[in-house]
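Prompt: For my understanding, could you write out one protein's sequence and C-alpha cells?
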Amino acid sequence: MMNCCGLITVQKEPVPLQSIEVELEVKDHVATVVSTLKYQNKEDKPVEAVFVFPLPGDAAVCHFSAVIGQKEIVAEVKEKQEAREEYDDSLSSGQQAFLLEESEQSPDIFSMKVGGLAPGESASIRLEYVTELAVQADDGLRFCLPAVLNPRYQPQGASVQVFSVPASLVPYTLCFCGRLFSPRPICKVESSCSLEPLQYLNTDQTQATVKLAAGHKFDRDVELVIYYKDAHQPTAVVEAGQTSAETGTLMGDPVVMVSLYPEFPQSVMSSVASCGEFVFLMDRSGSMGSSMNSKERHQTCIMSDRDTLLLLLKSLPMGCYFNIYSFGYNYEHIFPQSVEYNQKTMEEALKKVEEMEANLGGTEILKPLKHIYSQRCIPNQPQQLFVFIDGGVVNTKKVLCLVKKNSSCHSCFSFGIGEGASSALINGLAKEGGGHAQFITGTDRMQPKVIQSLRFALQPAVEDISVTWGLPKGVSVTVLSPPITSIFQGQRSLIYGQLTGQGAAIDRLDCTPYFKGVLLSRVCRLTVHRLAACTLIRSLEMEDREQQHGGMKEKVVQLSVQSGVSSSFTAFIAVNKADGKVIQGPLVRRNIQLSEYEVWATILALIWLHGFKMDAKEEWELLAMKAASWLRAQNAPCVPECVDAGNALLVFTFWIVIIKVCNLFLF
C-alpha cells in the first residue's frame, strides 16, 4: 500500500511543484531576485496548478516566463481583466497558459496559475523582481525571502481568499545563493539561517558571495542582514535608459537614484523631547498565540508583544501623554482617553498589559484606527502611534489610505511580530505615517529595535526639506518620488529622478563633479528604472483610492505596461501558441498552498469544541466562526456540508472524519 506524505490534494495526489531556486544580486541597498519554480505533472490528466505566495510589499515584479521543454515563453504585462480573459480563452482552446497577478487588496500577495500541463510534462517558471533593502537599528540592510504566508484576516464582506500551508509540510526544496556588490567594503552578513562562510571576490572586499548551508529546509523565512563600511555616506546611482524605448519616457531617459542616510551630531541626538502623545495599538487576535518562529517554539507572538510594549512604557518620558488600545474582532482601551504619564498611570498600564492574552478573535485594525483618529488632539503634544501586529489583513490598501489621510497630525511606527508579518502592511504604515518600521522575529534583537523607534519619536526630526539639483547645463530632472517631509537619525530616504534635456544621454553625461562627497556608480540593468516606476505606480494607486472614482487607473496601466512592472490593475500573461498542440481532457485544479492535513485538523478542533466545551462557548465562538469561514473557502469535499449543517452533523460525522484523517497519515 502506498504512503501519502508531504503536500497532497483531496484525492491524495501530490501537487506538481518540485523545487524553488533563488538567485539574489545585491548592489549596495537594492536587490534583484530571480526565482525559478519547477513543476512536473505526475498525473494522468492535465492540471491547472495555483500557487499563492508572498513577496516584499515594495517589490517591483519585472519578469515572468515559462520554459516548456526547450521553448521559452515570455509573459507580457496587460490590463488585468484582459489578461484573465486571454488566460481562460487559451485554456478553453486547449493551449498552455500562465498568469501572474498581484492582489488588488495587498501588494505583497501574488497568485500564479500554471494552466494546461499535459500528463508527464514539466515546466520551469522564472519570476524576477527588484526591491529596496530596509535599514535596521544597527545600520544593517535587511533582505527577507518569505517562506510563510500567514492567513490574512478577512473583514466581513471581503472577497479575497488567502490560504496557507505549514512551512514544515512543504514538499519542495529551496536552493539559494547571493552575490553582493557595493562601492564600499562589505563588513559581514548575518542570517536567521545557517550560512556558508562569506566568500570575497576581490581584495578590497566590495564583492562577495553568500550561500545557505547544506541541508537547509525552507521551513522559515530566509533573512540576510548586510553590513557595509561607512554606512552613512550618501550614494547615487545613474542608469541609462532602454535603447528600444522612446526618448522622453521614463524607460527611455536616464534615471538617477539618490540615497540619504544621515548621521546627526551627538548634540542633536542628546536632545530628547519630553512632550508628545504616545498611542500604542496592540494586536490580540488569536494568531498572536502562535510561536514567534520555528526555532523558538516557547516564545509566542503575544509574549513578545507584551515584552515590547512593557519596555516602551517604562522608557517614556515623564510628563508626556499616552494610551493603550488592543484589538481583534473588536477593540479595547486602557483609558477612555490619553492620560498624563506618571508613576501611577504607568503602573496601572503595566498591570493591564501583563494580563493581555491573544483572545480577541480576528484582526479588525480599521475600527480602532478610525476611533484613534477621531479623538481630539492634545495641544502641544504631537501624536506618535505605535502599531504591533503579527500578520496582515486583506484590506491593506484601505488601512494605508486611512493612515495617509491622517498623516498630517501624527507619525506612525510599526512593528511586525514573528515570521510571516505582512511587509506591505508594516512598511506601508510607517511610510504613509512618516515613521519607521521594524520586524521582530526573536528576542535577541528586540530591544535595540524598540528603543530605536522610541528615539525616533522623541528626538527632533529634520523638517522643511528641499532638494536642489546641480546638473550639467541643458539637463533637468523630474522627481518621481513623493516629497520627503522629515528625516530621522537612522532613517534612509530615497529620491528617484528622471533626467531629460539636451546631452542627457548616459554616454555623454558626466555627473561626477555634481555629486561631491557622494559615492556615484552606474548600472545598466534597468533596476533603478523599475524601482522608480514601482514608486510612481504606488503613488498613483494611492491617489486613485483617495479620489475613489478610478481616475488614475489608465495612467497606472500605461506606466505598468511601458515599464514591465506589475501593478494592482495589470497582470503578466503568457500563452504557448508555438507547437500547436491541444491539451486533451478537462483540467484538474491543484491549489499548491493548501494542506489537507490542516483542513481535517481544523474540523476535528471544531468537533471537540462543540462536543466538549459548550460551557465555555463565549470564549471560543469568534475563533470557531473564523475557522468555519476558512474551511468553507477551501472547497474540499464534504467540508461545506460539515460546517454548514451545524452541531448535530458535526458530531454525527465524527468517526467518518477520524477515519479520513487516519487514512491520510497511515495509508
User: Anything to note?
Assistant: DSSP finds 15 helices and 32 strands in the chain. The first helix runs from residue 80 to 92. The longest strand covers residues 17-27.
